[in-house]
């Protein structure tokens, strides 16, 4: 028969263990109390708010309040959508305020960001603000390169103002020590073709090549399309031959331009040659 003393000690220790095991359960119930889980609802992200806001003034204030929010300023859609809606509401004063303020922030020293500002002004139809942004880049400590020049040139080309385009093209590169590239040439060439100045466009290509800027497939295709549309088919055909002879391979768009010309000329049978 076992002594009673050890049995009593065992029973006491078991009871203590059971009691201690119940403590976490009580604590857990206390932690899971609904009152402790109550709190302020999570605030909607700024991008969601911007997308949902329909009042121009509230949209302006919301964007302004998030001028330093990287999730907003690095989101191209947020910028474009906000500017587009403010332009639709004819609140160009709000657009100017927002974009001019953005230039003064650290990102205003990045050319890629200024490039975006130029194009946003253009999208809102604020051409002068776009061009002024290019000219004022040094004020924000931002270096100009041919990239920002081409952005401003594209904005000007969409105005269809021949004189302004020619002045900008000839004077600005020298003023800021910039070297034109094939993108500069193609921007001007496309604008001249769309304005009906096909001869000027052709001279742009010729003069560019003299400066060492080699035409690419976009150059040839744009000019060829304009020549065919203006019934200068022989020159267009000659340009096709010149392109191939210089080792510039046509792309799908080039073939489409050529085929469309042959179909319109009732010479579709030559499309395979």
UniProtKB/TrEMBL annotation:
Domain of life of the source: Eukaryota
Q: Name one Pfam family in it.
A: PPR_2
- Spans of repeat PPR: 181-215, 216-250
Q: Keywords for this entry?
A: Repeat
Q: Which family does it belong to?
A: Belongs to the PPR family. P subfamily.
Q: What is the protein's given name?
A: Pentatricopeptide repeat-containing protein
Query: Can you name the source organism?
Result: Dipteronia sinensis
């Amino acid at each position: 028969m076992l002594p009673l003393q050890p049995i009593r000690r065992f029973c006491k220790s078991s009871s203590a263990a059971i009691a201690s095991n119940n403590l976490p359960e009580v604590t857990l119930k206390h932690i899971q109390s609904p009152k402790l889980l109550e709190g302020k609802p999570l605030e909607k992200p700024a991008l969601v708010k911007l997308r949902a806001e329909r009042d121009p003034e509230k949209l302006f204030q919301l964007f302004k309040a998030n001028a330093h929010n990287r999730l907003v300023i690095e989101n191209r859609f947020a910028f474009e959508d906000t500017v587009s809606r403010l332009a639709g509401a004819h609140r160009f004063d709000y657009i100017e305020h927002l974009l001019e303020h953005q230039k003064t922030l650290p990102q205003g020293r990045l050319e890629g960001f200024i490039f975006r500002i130029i194009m946003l002004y253009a999208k809102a139809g604020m051409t002068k603000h776009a061009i002024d942004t290019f000219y004022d880049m040094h004020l924000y400590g931002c270096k100009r390169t041919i990239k920002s020049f081409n952005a401003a040139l594209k904005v000007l080309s969409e105005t269809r103002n021949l004189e302004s385009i020619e002045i900008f093209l000839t004077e600005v590169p020298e003023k800021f020590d910039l070297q034109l590239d094939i993108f500069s040439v193609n921007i001007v060439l496309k604008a001249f073709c769309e304005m009906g100045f096909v001869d000027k466009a052709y001279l742009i290509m010729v003069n560019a090549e003299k400066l060492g800027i080699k035409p690419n497939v976009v150059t040839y295709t744009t000019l060829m399309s304009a020549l065919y549309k203006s019934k200068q088919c022989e020159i267009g055909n000659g340009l096709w031959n010149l392109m191939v002879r210089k080792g510039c391979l046509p792309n799908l768009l080039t073939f489409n331009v050529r085929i469309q010309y042959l179909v319109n000329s009732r010479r579709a049978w030559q499309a395979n040659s």
